[in-house]
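[09:14] KT: can someone run the structure on this one? pasting the chain below
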Amino acid sequence: MAKSRNNLLGVGGQRKKLSRAEQQGAGTARNADRKTAADQKQELLRKMRERAQSAESAESARSDDSQEQDQQARS
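[09:31] RB: done, structure tokens below
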């Protein structure tokens, strides 16, 4: 007798377990937490980039000032 190909039980991976709230349609707090975490990460990255840019601009300003002083001293 040929094998049955209609029995696909167990194919396709596992499904996540639903909490009682999710089963009742209350929505997921998990998605809200992920969104909040992503927003916090974006805010942190923005702050770090601003600090890095301000540090670079301060560094270049200091180097420009020191070069001008060197040129004035040589004159």
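[09:33] KT: thanks! The chain has two helices and no strands.
[09:34] RB: yep, looked fine to me
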